[in-house]
């Protein structure tokens, strides 16, 4: 399918994709596919005001009914899965299966949120005073700003939006300037769900704002946007996080990763190879969970490296829409330059680079062959996240040493160990093991399910999205003490007789 047909199939009209100031290019062939209209920065106060107005109404709708809207959204996403998946492929360059997988992730979180809408549980707490009852209730928070990145243009939005909506919070979404079309298509899908839901839903529950840093700034700086979720680079998070905190807003940060796999002597190597290749070269190494560091026991290092070289040689690189392709394009020319520069630095630090050059793909796109880099130690380049398919390979002797290497980077998103030894596996998951938000055994670091909380520590930002109790980030907690006695005892036995 050509680009224009894909856009039309997804319901975008010519008026929407022409005549604007933001040029959207497909990484598949570098072609400009749309010129879309940006949100003027001076319109942002109105956008936020509309979200506040929607909030006043939405917070009065019972949570299970709010869940019904998200159920309809999940249904509409199921109906539009192919069309939206194709736009993810067109705009982010993901292979078809991963484009569809991203939409499936949206559907999954909608299902999760529907159930959650009947389970926004608070606590009953034992009071120390007679005739008193204590409880905890969760209330809607207010408009939630969601800033997303190009590499997962829609799933992280849905992790935030599906939860925010059942929690009673309207959403203002600023997609990456590189992938705004997926947001426009999603808005359309959402509008269909909203129309089916009927009159109880306010019109501005989801607003998409298009543009650059000034649009994001307006959300970051507004006290009327109490929750601000941002996915992107650590550099971006270091600017956004403190600004939100300075106005006592609540930031939810999902930033860089530098994810490692430890491969122990007992590992099932064939399984490890499959996990390594998927997580290191899948999405052309442009997931925040991509595998970037391999920490292999010296006794199997050579054997594993050989197996990987063979597996890498068999990869099909090229047009992500073609069946059989495993590695699509990088997002743009800057990404190619960053990859080349990282490989050069790694070489200067004593690394031996295999692969990493240009690959044959569609004319105009940035296609590279994934690189394996044997490193003598964990250098500065290895400690830096480069959004490209580069896998650094290092050796280790003891598990302690491996865990130390795994943790000795500024980021703390995802990690894993391949081992059949229960002592090693449990140590890796224990308090003295991985310091990451995600720690897996015999599974690669990427491709997490939505049921768990997603996010990580250190420069990854500390935020949690998606499953488990991440919903609490979108609500405010209220502790209530009710006195049903005829006395007025004070806590801690304080006497204050008047
Ligand atoms: C991201 O790269 O920003 O765990 C998100 C994964 C996906 C999400 C990645 N479920 O790889």
UniProtKB/TrEMBL annotation:
Homotetramer. Its EC number is 1.2.1.3. GO terms for molecular function: aldehyde dehydrogenase (NAD+) activity. This is aldehyde dehydrogenase (NAD(+)). The active site is at 254. Keywords: NAD, Oxidoreductase. Coiled coil: none annotated. It comes from Roseovarius indicus. Gene3D superfamilies: Aldehyde Dehydrogenase, Chain A, domain 1, Aldehyde Dehydrogenase, Chain A, domain 2. CDD domains: ALDH_F7_AASADH. It holds the Pfam family Aldedh. The keyword Translocase does not apply. Belongs to the aldehyde dehydrogenase family. Residues 20-479 form the Aldehyde dehydrogenase domain.
